[in-house]
Design a protein that fits this description.
The protein has helices spanning 16-22, 37-49, 60-69, 86-96, 111-119, 132-195, 202-216, 221-232, 243-246, 254-261, 263-271, 280-285, 307-322, 333-342, 350-357, 361-367, and strands spanning 4-5, 25-26, 29-33, 53-57, 74-78, 101-106, 124-127. It starts with a strand and ends in a 9-residue tail after the last helix. The longest helix has 64 residues, at 132-195. It is rod-shaped and about 115 Å long. It has a five-stranded parallel sheet, sandwiched between helices. A two-stranded antiparallel ribbon has the order 1-2. By secondary structure, it is of the alpha/beta class. Helix 5 (111-119) links the parallel strand 6 (101-106) and strand 7. It has 16 helices and seven strands. The structure holds fe (ii) ion. The site of fe (ii) ion (FE2) has 5 residues, from loops.
Length: 376
């Protein structure tokens, strides 16, 4: 004989231990709803003999009163009764007490009635006159089926809780890992700035402008984060370029220019073995490639250049023309924008240019306004 659950605890926030505590065993509580006094007495005797605790109701109205104060494992209910019909009562019962099993009894062997009551979710349907054994078997089977369903539901809930807990742990670990990665990138950026104070902060400015352009392009979050991070260290390779060449006033000769250009390869070599969640190494490697294939180091063109690199290339150009250098004063943002406009479709990807021009000049000025050496 299946034992009843004394109480069902809310396990939405509980642990497995709470679940164990929720399955304290007790005799099944059943209610018999029938207007026939003889049937009520016979059934009550049968069920009590089987160790069940029985409550008797002479009609649906009495049944409703009982279910308001007591939780039944099973309700054995007649269909045709004076007042509210058994079907209506059971509909109400299953709405308010979905964990209660229902077995229905009727004097009518009507397939349409049987179909209707099965559809509302009862466990068994007994035709009167019935043999006592038949009723006992139906009730015991219904209790067993209900028990299995409840176990199944609890098991599923436990699994859902477990999955939610594990997912939270993985999410937390990923978030910590990402923070660590961000820390590495920031440390790298500081190293570059130490080496080349003249351009200190420019990587930050490029990163801010590039991120705004990526946002205007409506890239996904991962790509925008990649643009931000790669922009932050796009010139990390300059760490391998002699300071006297980096800060040389006046024009560079061909040899010196080649050394400067090597910063993309050096940057790539520094980053390529770090398993970032973003393609930062490629973005850094390609940020001097140009849309028409005239850039360096590999003369990539069009779609062969990754979007992140194309965005950083445009932001880098704007930033470079808006700030002073040791060998010239700043041409200014207006001239920088004219330069981009002039070479849209040629040096610069039109989609990136369009996104840039979606920003207003004050917005661009704001993004580039970081003071050198700012930690912001
Ligand atoms: Fe660069």
């Amino acid at each position: 004989m299946p034992k009843r659950r004394k109480k069902m605890v809310d396990i939405s926030n509980g642990e497995a231990q709470d679940l164990k505590r929720s399955v304290e065993e007790a005799p099944p509580e059943i209610m018999i709803v029938d207007d026939d006094d003889t049937i009520r007495r016979i059934l009550s005797k049968l069920m009590s003999k089987k160790g069940m605790e029985v409550t008797l109701a002479a009609d649906a109205a009495v049944g409703r009163k009982f279910i308001k104060s007591k939780e039944f494992d099973l309700v054995l209910c007649d269909i045709n009764m004076p007042g509210e019909s058994g079907i209506e009562f059971i509909r109400y019962l299953l709405t308010t007490h979905p964990n209660t099993a229902v077995v229905m009894m009727t004097g009518l062997d009507d397939p349409q009635v049987a179909e209707a009551v099965i559809d509302i979710g009862i466990y068994a349907y007994i035709i009167k006159p019935f043999r006592p054994k038949q009723v006992v078997i139906s009730v015991v089977n219904a209790l067993r089926q209900r028990e299995l369903e409840m176990q199944n539901r609890l098991h599923r809930k436990k699994l859902e809780l477990l999955v939610a807990k594990r997912t939270d742990t993985v999410r937390k670990t990923m978030s910590e890992l990402k923070q660590a990665m961000v820390g590495i990138v920031e440390a790298m950026a500081k190293m570059v700035e130490q080496k080349d104070p003249y351009t200190a902060g420019r990587q930050k400015r490029v990163s801010r402008l590039a991120t705004a352009i990526a946002g205007k392009m409506k890239l996904d979050d991962l790509q925008i984060e990649c643009v931000r991070m790669a922009g932050f260290i796009h010139d990390i390779g300059k760490i391998g370029v002699p300071v006297e060449i980096l800060n040389k006033p006046g024009k560079l000769n061909r040899h010196e220019f080649a050394i400067i250009q090597s910063h993309v390869q050096i940057g790539y070599d520094i980053l390529k073995n770090i398993n970032f969640p973003w393609p930062i190494a490629q973005a850094v490697y390609q940020h001097h490639e140009r849309f028409d294939g005239s850039g360096y180091p590999r003369r990539l063109a069009g779609e062969d250049i990754c979007t992140e690199a194309k965005i950083i290339g445009v932001a880098d150009t704007i930033e470079a023309m808006s700030s002073n250098r040791s060998y010239r004063s700043a041409p200014g943002i207006g001239n920088a924008l004219d330069e981009i406009k002039k070479h849209r479709n040629e040096l610069y990807d039109p989609l990136v240019c369009n996104a840039l021009f979606d920003l207003t000049i004050p917005e661009i000025e704001g993004l580039l306004a970081l003071a050198p050496n700012s930690d912001e």
